[in-house]
Design goal:
Order of helices and strands: HEHEHH
CATH class: Mainly Alpha
CATH topology: Cytochrome Bc1 Complex, Chain D, domain 2
CATH architecture: Orthogonal Bundle
Helix content: 25-40%
Number of domains: 1
CATH superfamily: Cytochrome c-like domain
Length: 133
């Protein structure tokens, strides 16, 4: 990994708090979370896991994806609202969107522009150099 990606890995497991949900060998807790992703397109009745369980606490909750090969899986989020990993990092850095039942794990982080680039560099390192693999 590049030195920038190594610094991004330290952010991922530290200040950025990504590893709260993206952990283990597949970088997922395999749990459902509401992270405040905006509807796309707007007003489409995005109810998430609640559709299955009927439980209010599952409203707009989606399963944490694994991050292996993440550079090859754009667009991002369950609805494809973010086109780049930079967009995803910006979203998490601002603490997601307002949602009264958003996960308490999601809050503003306060990354510098350099830290955001390093975090993206780390996630890019989780991909394959051979896209046919």
């Amino acid at each position: 990994m590049s030195p920038s990606a190594v610094r991004g890995m330290r952010l991922f497991f530290g200040k950025a708090k990504c590893s709260i949900c993206h952990n283990g060998p597949r970088l997922t807790d395999a749990q459902f979370h509401n992270i405040g992703v905006p509807d796309f397109p707007p007003d489409q009745g995005d109810i998430g896991r609640k559709k299955v369980t009927g439980e209010l606490f599952h409203l707009r909750s989606y399963k944490t994806p694994g991050l292996r090969y993440i550079p090859q899986t754009a667009p991002y989020m369950h609805n494809g609202i973010f086109k780049t990993l930079k967009d995803v990092v910006e979203f998490y850095d601002m603490g997601g969107n307002d949602d009264p039942i958003k996960s308490p794990f999601i809050s503003p982080i306060g990354l510098s522009n350099t830290e955001k680039r390093e975090l993206v560099d780390f996630m890019l390192s989780l991909g394959s150099e051979n896209s046919d693999y």
